Amino acid sequence: MNNKKTFLSIKDIVFMNIISIVSLRQVLNAAPYGASQVILWCIAAFCFFIPLAMVCCELCIKYPVNGGIFIWVKEAFGIKTAWVVSVYYLMSCIVFFPMLLFFAFNSFFNLLQVENNHFLIMLCGIISFCAFTYFNILGIRYVNILNKIFIYLGIFIPILILCFLALVQISMGGGY
Predict the structure, then answer these.
(1) Which is deepest, 12, 41, 70, 122, by most CB within 10 Å?
(2) Separation of alpha carbons 15 and 20, rounded Å
(3) DSSP annotation of 2
(4) pLDDT of 1
């Protein structure tokens, strides 16, 4: 019997949403709002991320075939609407994910003081996009592994470091 995980749990879907929406690129936008932004993110988690994950899990249980959003919309609204939704979803992914990768590599190369190297940023972005697409083709197990790596390395650990540095700043009399 194959005991390997071949499905997404509620936790996995919540992590995927957190990775794509709440990331370090949002810290700069949220900084002027201070600690109240944390409360707003918690409200978003309980009012959006968790219900979305629960709906996705419920639909996966009800329709246990491959196809995801296409199958769900087809069953509810018909095949024409399912194709339209799938095309719009694909177009949004084609725009969003490369943009996110290019932002990440641009920030990374700026930290290394490699400025205005657009070819290097483009090359790393394309290679990463192809690699992530390959992992998605391999299956859910690999997607879950990548999610866990990026949620800890890209969000939890940096936010803990930022909180620690904020506490050091406050303890040294730097104020809030």
Answers:
(1) 12
(2) 9
(3) -
(4) 42
How far is it, in rounded angstroms, from Cα 159 to Cα 167? 12
Tokens at 34, concatenated: 């201070």
Which has the higher per-residue pLDDT, 73 or 25? 73
Distance CA 164, CA 157 (A): 10
Place of tokens 């390959």: 134
Angle between helix 118-138 and helix 79-111 axes, rounded to 10 deg: 130
Rounded average pLDDT over 71-95: 89
- Say which amino acid occupies 81: T
Tell me the HSE value of 37 on the side-chain side, using a 13 A CA sphere. 10
Q: Quick check: helix, strand or coil at residue 107?
A: helix
C-beta separation of 142 from 6 below 8 A? no
- How does pLDDT run across 28-75, given as a tens digit for each residue? 677 777 777 778 778 877 888 778 778 888 888 888 777 788 888 898
In 76-171 the beta strands, taken as DSSP E runs, fall at none
Q: Which residue has the tokens 């943009």?
A: 99
